[in-house]
């Protein structure tokens, strides 16, 4: 298992022959970082989970990691906006490649993602995970809770993803209820951001719907999420369908009335100073995207999270202009 996947980079024995792997997965490298499986001294490992068997409507987000990596390259050139620094002068980041999965044995996928996450977290790095459908957050949360204890979840989404299932099924609309019941999310410290779907219960989450955010503004929304999280370990799960289809058309279950990309970015940047332990960016479906709109937005929120980690580690913000 540890030697499988990304064979173009990792196969050492021969230049000949074909090999079996997910041809739709593999590393292009996020933000032009080095591809590496050596995590000594590494602060953050960026990794893809190219899996979309758990979608309920349009598929395609197994191609998300490659699209987000490809879209990220234009952020790799200049100093980060609005921070005014190069985050990689402070923060050591590698592209760890993708989790190697066997989608034709779906019962293996959850444990394999969790093992992949354990490998990274136990080596001492934080994870920035590129999905994949939103179901991948469940094994990621299990691995993070093993390391950090129950996490405060800040979930960007059009949907609550806390619907009941039969306890055996694995879809991208029920995993946060399962995670809450397992105690790996502290719902009392968690916030769902941008919702515009209905569920009879909130299961203890604070829900900031998109209409509420549109009426009350980003600052008020950020304040709620910050106060709830306190000093708890914060895991951000960013489903791109939290954004409006105008800003994120390339996704499987788009819902009108969502956040603009600027609102999402302002929200992420507003989480500065919290105990940020992990992030995933999920549900980018390139076949439904146009002009890389969705993939660029996804790459940018991920990039800004890295900048917050760099700032927490001492990178000095340079302010020019009115921010
Ligand atoms: Mn979701």
Automatic annotation (TrEMBL):
One of its GO terms (molecular function) is metal ion binding. Mn(2+) binds at residues 134, 157, 159, 161, 239, 241. Its EC number is 3.5.3.11. It is an enzyme of class 3 (hydrolase). InterPro entries: Agmatinase-rel, Ureohydrolase, Ureohydrolase_dom_sf, Ureohydrolase_Mn_BS. Binds 2 manganese ions per subunit. GO terms for biological process: putrescine biosynthetic process from arginine, via agmatine. Gene3D superfamilies: Ureohydrolase domain. The keyword Hydrolase applies. It comes from the Bacteria. The keyword Metal-binding applies. Keywords: Hydrolase, Manganese, Metal-binding. Its cofactor is Mn(2+). Belongs to the arginase family. Agmatinase subfamily. This is Agmatinase. It comes from Paracoccus onubensis. The lineage of its organism: Bacteria, Pseudomonadati, Pseudomonadota, Alphaproteobacteria, Rhodobacterales.
């Amino acid at each position: 298992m540890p030697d499988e996947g990304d064979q173009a980079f990792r196969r050492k024995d021969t230049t000949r022959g074909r090999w079996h792997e997910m041809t739709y997965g593999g590393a292009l490298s996020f933000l032009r970082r080095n591809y590496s499986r050596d995590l000594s001294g590494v602060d953050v490992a960026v990794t893809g989970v190219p899996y979309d068997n758990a979608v309920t409507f349009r598929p395609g987000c197994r191609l998300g990691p490659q699209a987000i990596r490809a879209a990220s390259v234009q952020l790799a050139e200049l100093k980060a906006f609005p921070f005014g620094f190069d985050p990689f002068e402070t923060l050591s980041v590698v592209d760890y490649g993708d989790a190697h999965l066997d989608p034709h044995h779906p019962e293996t996928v959850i444990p394999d993602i969790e093992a992949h996450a354990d490998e990274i977290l136990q080596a001492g790095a934080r994870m920035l995970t590129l999905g994949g459908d939103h179901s991948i957050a469940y094994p990621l949360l299990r691995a993070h809770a093993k390391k950090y204890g129950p996490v405060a979840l800040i979930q960007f989404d059009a949907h609550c993803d806390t619907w009941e299932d039969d306890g055996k099924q694995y879809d991208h609309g029920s995993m946060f209820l399962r995670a809450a019941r397992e105690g790996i999310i502290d719902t009392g410290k968690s916030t769902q951001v941008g919702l515009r779907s209905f569920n009879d219960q909130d299961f203890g989450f604070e829900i900031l719907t998109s209409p509420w955010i549109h009426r009350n503004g980003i600052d008020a929304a950020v304040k709620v999420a910050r106060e709830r999280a306190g000093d708890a370990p914060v895991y951000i799960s960013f489903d791109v369908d939290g954004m409006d289809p105008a800003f994120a058309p390339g996704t499987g279950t788009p819902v009108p009335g969502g956040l603009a990309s600027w609102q999402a970015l302002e929200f992420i940047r507003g989480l500065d100073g919290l105990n940020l332990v992990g992030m995933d960016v999920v549900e980018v479906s390139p076949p439904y995207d146009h002009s890389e709109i969705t993939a660029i937005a996804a790459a940018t929120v991920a990039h800004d999270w890295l900048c917050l980690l760099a700032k927490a580690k001492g990178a000095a913000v340079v302010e020019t202009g009115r921010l």
